Amino acid sequence: MKMLTAHDLKTGEVVYWSARGEWTPRLADSALLEDAAADDALKAAQGRETIVVNPYLVPMDQPATPVARERVRELIRARGPTTHPAFARPTGGA
Length: 94
Known about the structure:
Blueprint: E1 2-8, E2 14-17, E3 23-24, H1 35-46, E4 52-61, E5 65-66, H2 68-79
């Protein structure tokens, strides 16, 4: 299983590909994709350079958490800076 993530071109915000077939800022709404579907979604995202930049796939463990080597980076991307809790972004269930 994999999750597709990128940055919104207009805002710079971290976004995730959802099961509804659209980008969402909520990690909790991200879709878990099988390998073939994940590769197709990544190719499609790479062709949409006017919407998102730097799309990539995150390998996922069960139940729906990034694999160990990716976990810290993705939590920081979802929650915002690690310097002080006052600067964290609301994630809606990250």
